[in-house]
Design goal:
The protein has 256 residues and is an alpha/beta fold. Helix content is 44%, strand content 17%. The chain is built from twelve helices and eight strands. Helix 6 (106-112) packs across helix 7. It starts with a strand and ends with a helix. The model has no long low-confidence stretch (mean pLDDT 93).
Length: 256
């Protein structure tokens, strides 16, 4: 059965796109059929997957607003997963959808036609709790929350958890928290240890054992138009994302 995961956190710079691209590539390396949906107008997941966002025939914007099918808009990538690409056109979608009926479920409808062709659909949400992000959360089965272990991150996390709760009540009753991923983790940092401990106390086994370290290869990979797991599989960042994919697959097997 297809598992749809939204990678979401309204705080920017926490590693959402890095996580989306590298998780998609890691699951693909594990012989899973993967579709990555770039739901951010910045289009960073698109360029990070090696696709030129300036010359798209169709994008996720056209799926949400223009009635183009996901089958027509998706493209293949060098890392083996398929991509529903994005660019700045998507920024206008929120205004165009505001008076439309069922505006929160456009992405869910768009993905229904291709859902059965994939084992995993990964949705890279923008760093805001707006209508585009709500579309991502309405389409997903679960939310993976990347976060840095710092004080303000805990504050933002409670807002996101409240949003997830409201969406589950009113729009998507199946939505759950898949897990919390500690990113840019520095084991030498005392605050990081304390926040990490707080997370484990509050969320228990929802916190992934895998922690993503600060890593030069993860930072360099987008400029090469490829995920770190494709660029340098032996790097610390790549091995961490491969471990995360293994953890997600093991959890999925346990649920089955």
């Amino acid at each position: 059965m297809t598992r749809i995961l939204a990678i979401a956190n309204q705080k920017g710079g926490v590693g959402k796109t890095t996580t989306s691209v590298n998780l998609a590539a890691s699951l693909s390396l594990a012989h899973r059929r993967v579709l990555l949906v770039d739901l951010d107008p910045q289009g960073n997941a698109t360029t990070g997957s090696g696709v030129d966002k300036r010359h798209l025939k169709a994008s996720i914007y056209h799926c949400l607003v223009g009635g183009v099918s996901a089958e027509m808009a998706r493209v293949g990538t060098v890392s083996g997963f398929d991509l529903l690409p994005s660019n700045r056109d998507l920024a206008g979608a929120e205004v165009e959808l505001v008076d439309e009926p069922e505006r929160e479920s456009r992405l869910r409808e768009c993905l229904q036609a291709v859902e059965a062709q994939y084992d995993y659909i990964i949705i890279d949400c923008p760093p805001a709790l707006n209508l585009i992000t709500i579309n991502g959360l309405c389409a997903a089965h679960a939310v993976l929350i990347p976060m840095q272990c710092e004080y303000y991150a805990l504050e933002g996390l409670s807002d996101l958890v409240q949003t997830i709760r409201r969406i589950r009540q009113h729009l998507n009753p199946r939505l759950e928290i898949e897990g919390l991923l500690r990113t840019m983790y520095d084991p030498r940092n005392t605050l990081a240890h304390q926040v990490s401990k707080d997370l484990q106390q509050h969320f228990g086994d929802k916190v992934y054992r895998t922690m993503i370290p600060r890593n030069v290869r993860l930072a360099e990979a987008p400029s090469h138009g490829t995920p770190a797991v494709t660029l340098d599989k032996q790097s610390k960042g790549a091995t961490a994302y491969l471990a995360l994919a293994g953890e997600i697959l093991n959890r999925s097997d346990a649920h089955d």
